User: Fold this.
Amino acid sequence: MTAKYRSVDHPQFFEFHDSSLKLVFLTEDSISVYADCLNISKDAEQNPKRIDLEIKKAHITFYGVSDVTYEPGHTWKTDEQGNSVPVGPRIIFNGKEALKRISNELENGMEVFSHQIVDGDHFVLSGSGIEPYFDIMFKAERFTVEWNEYAGPAWYELTKQFKKEMIVSTPNGDVKTEVHFITAYDPDELYYADDPDSVLPKAVSVGMKYADKQYWGHGNDRSGQEAFSDLQKQLPDGIVLNYPLS
Assistant:
């Protein structure tokens, strides 16, 4: 059965973080997996929305696989120069032994923590499975992703975080402080909106630190006024939030 969507050799449009991989097949020169929770960039031509989306179930195949390594996790320490160095020798498996261990991990199921492309054609996947942590690296000449439907917005589209510098009035005068904003969005509203930037958040949180203590306020308006009002109530007497500097 032909998939509705197909992408060839555009790994830059896919985000593997927090995805789950399960083995379909593995040979000496190809690796094929099913992926849950794989995300695709809004810049990809197959994405009909103006936000990054989560693919419901993807079929990923790497062709022309070579230069394969598998490295289980190990303990690190900081040396006298402040550099991270492994405790004891690093164990890195290559070739057929690496493929065997990768096959076992993918057959069991791999939760991906991070991924990167090195030198333009080497894929590095870090995650957990049989081993609590491991790195897989291999060169691939071709990369395809096939899928039929979307699950909704990518997980990182549902919460936005940013910081602003603000003035706080204290009994000792005005001081600058950094205020942390967190906005949360309804996935259906975000997915079906013609203009995602116009969608109001379902919740807003605003936080700041004063006298080594963290304070948070919460509200449901996009401007953050409700959250600021709630935050003001948490602050000690005589401490007053003013206007944003930027």
